Amino acid sequence: MPFGAYQNEIYLQGLGGQLPPFTTDPDALEGSARGRLGPGPFWYVAGGAGSGATVRANREAFDRRRIVPRMLRDATTRHLGTTVLGTEMPAPVLLAPVGVQSIVHPDGELATARAAAELGLTMILSTASSHTIEDVAAANGDGSRWYQLYWPNDPDVCVSILSRAKESGYRVLVVTLDTWSLAWRPHDLDQSYLPFIRGTGVAIPFSDPAFRAGLAKPPEEDMPSAILRWVPMFTGTDKSWAQLSFLREHWDGPIVLKGVQHVDDARKAVDAGVQGIVVSNHGGRQVDGAIASLDALPGIAEAVGEQLEVLFDSGVRTGADIVKALALGARAVLLGRPYVYGLAHGGQGGVRHVVRSVLADLDLTLGLAGFRSPAELNRDALWERA
Ligand SMILES: Cc1cc2nc3c(=O)[nH]c(=O)nc-3n(C[C@H](O)[C@H](O)[C@H](O)COP(=O)(O)O)c2cc1C
Ligand SMILES: O=C(O)C(=O)c1ccccc1
Fold first, then answer.
1. Which parts of the sequence belong to the FMN hydroxy acid dehydrogenase domain (predicted)?
2. What ligand is nearest to the CA atom of residue 123?
3. Residues 22 and 345 sit within 8 Å (Cβ to Cβ)
4. H/E run at residue 384
5. Torsion angles phi and psi, residue 160, rounded to 5
6. Which atom of ligand 2 is the closest one to the Cα of 283?
7. Which terminus, N or C, of the chain has the lesser number of Cβ atoms within 10 Å?
8. Angle, helix 155-167 to helix 133-140, in steps of 10 degrees
9. Which residues line ligand 2 at a C-beta cut-off of 6 Å?
């Protein structure tokens, strides 16, 4: 069933008097989620670092580029599927790792895992998850899952978490490099809203045998001490390129580095022997004033796209955005905030509606622009404003 068929489904349901569960308008989605969430949870998701300059820059970079549609090329049948690092995907879209999803819905990552499995998409589970590696794997069933590591300083805890992920069927390790500390985030600070305490984003360390072994009392008996041990374990110390060999030793599948923004770092990733990168500025949540992720993409894809898989995120909201990122050299994109807003609207069903909408929009936009598959896209498909 083509993804664009969601359009017909919605129109047909309309004949029976039924409307979509909530908006299909990507621009209205954030405002709609705002009406459902308190200010703490809403700004945790929507907020960015500092003045919000990079959150805005991410959108502006998409706006500056436009698709140039081609006619009479018979794009009535499209094939959106692709394979990334051995993972088959029905469309070049993954669900980005987002921490502490219980903040917006009690089912949190379990709902996301179920929605991803239903749609055949790959989810990337965050280390800051509010559910354990094993529970999310069970919810995802025979779906496709990758694991995102916030790299703990304690090697025993790191190895233990990696082996749990491996045993639970997570196929690819995504190592996030840009968040060894949370950035200056005025919205969270003004509300004294520390996300991973508010939403129990510590399920993974607290359930970890190696982490528990280092505590005087288990977290259930002494939560503050456990948190005080975990926070410095995954923040405060940056790692070096040389240390990546430790992860290669303890993870025998593909490794992807998330948060690459400079072409020289992309080349270092090649030298380090990893299999992929995510060109990302963390949705504008880390370095305020950082380059728009889409502006960083073409140079990086050109330099290293033949040597490793180049994935992309930050600012993707529509099908057209995905077309633009693919045309600039991304193999696939990660969807971030939009699916979290879907989760806020209705758990698994809310994620399903948002993701189906984005995929339908992608399918229709690609076809109407005259392309049958992502592989046909390149820079010729775009016009760019100076
Ligand atoms: C609420 C929230 C929590 C996030 N938590 C994580 C995380 O735990 N690990 C991670 O690698 N990235 C995390 N990210 C970043 C996303 O993976 C992704 O890079 C970003 O959302 C992309 O930007 P977009 O939301 O504009 O699409 C988070 C993003 C948001 C919005
Ligand atoms: O908020 C984030 O962007 C993020 O990456 C994170 C990190 C730790 C806990 C929760 C979210």
1. 18-386
2. 1
3. yes
4. strand 382-384
5. -65, -45
6. 3
7. C
8. 20
9. 99-100, 128, 179, 195-196, 201, 282, 285
Nearest CA to ligand 1 atom 21: 336
Here the ipTM equals: 0.99
Q: Does 315 sit in the ligand 1 pocket, CB within 6 Å?
A: yes
Nearest in space to 151 (alpha carbons), one of 108, 180, 117, 109: 180
Best of 45, 125, 126 for a ligand 2 pocket test (most atoms within 8 Å of beta carbon): 126
Percent of the chain with pLDDT over 70: 99
Residue 38 is encoded by which pair of tokens?
Answer: 């308190």
- Confidence band, pLDDT 50/70/90 cuts, at residue 195: confident
- Tokens 């990893």 belong to 274
How far is residue 249's CA from residue 379's CA, in Å, rounded to a whole number? 38
d(CA 366, CA 377): 9
Report the nearest atom of ligand 2 relative to the CA of 179. 5
- Looking from the CA of residue 280, the nearest atom of ligand 1 is 19
| Residue found by looking up tokens 């977290």 in the block | 219
Residues above pLDDT 90, as percent of the chain? 95
Ligand nearest to the CA of 188: 2
What gap in Å lies between CA 234 and CA 371, rounded to an integer? Answer: 44
Q: Give the strand pairing for 173-176 and 144-149.
A: parallel
Quote the ligand 1 centre to 14 CA distance (angstroms): 34
First vs last Cα of the chain: how many Å apart? 39
What is the architecture, at CATH level 2, of domain 5-384?
Answer: Alpha-Beta Barrel (3.20)
